[in-house]
Design goal:
Bound molecules: zinc ion
Strand order of the largest sheet: 2-1-3-4-5
Order of helices and strands: HEEHHEHEHEH
Structural class: alpha/beta
Number of helices: 6
Helix content: 40-55%
Number of strands: 5
Strand content: 15-25%
Radius of gyration: 19 Å
Shape: elongated
Distance between the termini: 49 Å
């Protein structure tokens, strides 16, 4: 296992924690001097906050740890899914030097490369995608297919209840 895969596995473990809590399983870790210094996972459903992404949590925690919005030189961010523009922006703001992500976002739905190369904050973040890609995308695919399956089962279940047995709550479906 490569060094990159090792740290991506740590991010995957965070994603699995989110999965247990019913969240879309995305995990992230910040690494400094070959050690994981902070972890985060998507908690959007629980918090109902648009910013509760795995990367934001991991970056915020790392900043608190170093008592600095500017992370020390050499900090790396590992995330299981290609970051959205908000998280990529946070990584640039925190001066993350290297970003590794696992699964690729659907084409055109992320601006990772564009933002990394824009030199917006006079800071370049090196980006590498596809680290432990198979595992990172499998956990997401499984999550979404089980969601669809559950939604379908629920629909079937409702269809099989005779009309007059729906009761008071029946009209809400
Ligand atoms: Zn994000």
């Amino acid at each position: 296992m490569t060094r990159e895969e090792k740290f991506m596995r740590a991010a995957l473990r965070c994603a699995k924690k989110g999965l247990k809590e019913g969240e879309v399983p995305i995990g992230a870790v910040v690494v400094y001097e070959d050690k994981v210094v902070s972890r985060g996972y998507n908690r959007r459903a629980k918090t109902q906050l648009a910013s509760a992404h795995a990367e934001m949590m991991a970056i915020d925690k790392a900043c608190r740890k170093f008592s600095s919005w500017r992370l020390p030189e050499g900090c790396e961010l590992y995330v299981t899914l290609e970051p959205c523009p908000m998280c990529m922006g946070a990584a640039l703001n925190a001066r993350v030097d290297k970003l590794y992500f696992g699964a690729y976002e659907q084409k055109g739905r992320s601006l990772t490369k564009e933002l990394a190369e824009a030199n917006l904050l006079n800071h370049k973040t090196e980006v590498k995608g596809g680290v432990a890609e198979a595992e990172c995308s499998a956990i997401l695919t499984e999550f979404f297919s089980s969601m669809r399956k559950r939604a379908k089962e629920e629909k079937e279940r409702r269809k099989n209840i005779p009309e007059n047995n729906l009761g008071e709550s029946g009209g809400n479906g």
